[in-house]
Amino acid sequence: MKSKRKNDYSKLKNKIFLKMILVIFATVATVILLRFAIQKYFSFGDTIADFLMNIFHIPDRTAIMITHFLFIYNIEAITLIVILIFLVILLKFSISWFTKYFDEVSDGMDKLAEEYDEEITLSPELAFMENKLNQIKNNLQKQKKAALEAEQRKNDLVVYLAHDIKTPLTSVIGYLSLLDEAPDMPLKQKAKYVGITLEKAYRLEQLINEFFEITRFNLQAIVLDKEKINLLLMLQQMADEFYPMLTPQEKQVSVNVPDGLTLWGDADKLARVFNNILKNAVAYSYENSVIDISAVQQDKNIVITFTNQGNPIPQGKLDSIFEKFYRLDTARSTSTGGAGLGLAIAQEIVTAHDGIISVESNRESTTFTIKLPS
Predict the structure, then answer these.
(1) Same domain, 360 and 285
(2) Potential cystine with 127: which of 5, 48, 97, 183 (Cβ 3.0-4.6 Å)?
(3) Residues in contact with 127: Cβ distance below 8 Å, sequence separation at least 6, in sequence order
(4) Residue 341 has pLDDT above 70, yes or no
């Protein structure tokens, strides 16, 4: 692997400086030499006159007059013209040397646009630009890969959700058909079928909402409407709302937040963040366990934690848990399966509040931590 070269302009500046010094010295030396050579050569008027007489058969006096009027008397102008012509040629070569760097950078940009697979290589003095281009290329490749993976996950989820919608829909149609075909069905049996139908209808509604969630995620910009939030009151109300989900498995939520702790933020959107995290904690916690929600003031920040006891999140998946359409439960169980957007949306909202969200998981517990400016 090629060693990393110095990422600054020093090599290019030094080389340009040396080239400029060389061009200046070459120009001065050339001017002196040309002036000396031209004036020395044209000092031999007889030689020029003889040349005119022998080649063009011009009379002596006429040849001498032509020599004096055209050459001897205009020696300074002739010298200047010759020097200027040489300087133009020298300048052209100098500019060509400088512009080769622009050509290299342009070629590197073309390779970047063409998604060139190999590493972009420039001259040693353009190492700083080479590093920048390769860094951009690597970032673009990572973004493209992430976008393709997210798109593939989204497509898979759409297929999964479409398949999952069919199951409750079939049940709804089946039980409604039974109720329609047997109007004199016993009340107890009818109540049982109505309850199952309602349960499947709620599941169907949930899956349809997830379809809308997938579409809205990329189209909806996050606009914050900040206000003063009573954090204890918000989290207690949220815990109460989850009571129907907690009771069947005898789970509990413990809210440990100091009275009077306030937060400046968008109440609706932060409620969505806390809801998504708590929903995740409820889905993946053990039966008969307690989910702890705590909040403390740390300097100018408020730190909120959601801790649950459950199977640990594999370390290899912790970095991906906040990605769009990422789901831990690859089996897509109906009890925990979602669109894989809850935590991704939570991160977007927390980031919009200039906050940070993170997760830690071990054999004992999983903790989501949210740090927000107070």
Answers:
(1) yes
(2) 5
(3) 5, 6, 7, 11
(4) no
